[in-house]
Design a protein that fits this description.
The chain has three helices and two strands. The chain is mainly alpha-helical. It has a domain of 38 residues: Histone, subunit A (Orthogonal Bundle).
Length: 95
Amino acid sequence: MALDKAEVEKIAHLARLHISEADTEEVTTRITDILTLIDQMKTVDTESVEPLAHPLDMVQRFRADVVTETNTREQLQDLAPESQDGLYLVPKVIE
């Protein structure tokens, strides 16, 4: 898929990008090259390729899921101006 100069200028305008007249030809060539590469990649047969979650065959080392801090909610809510049923009450700011 090839783009012409007018299409690149239209895309740049829609994207609110300023591309100088001197750079328009280079940008057109680069975008056309990228789209050509994408078209080539679409033709590759990937029918027998399994999808990957990650390109490297690695295992995450997880830490043990243990509580490391004590629950201080009651102490913190005692410091709050207002709280109710374990929730902080704040003034309404949107009408």
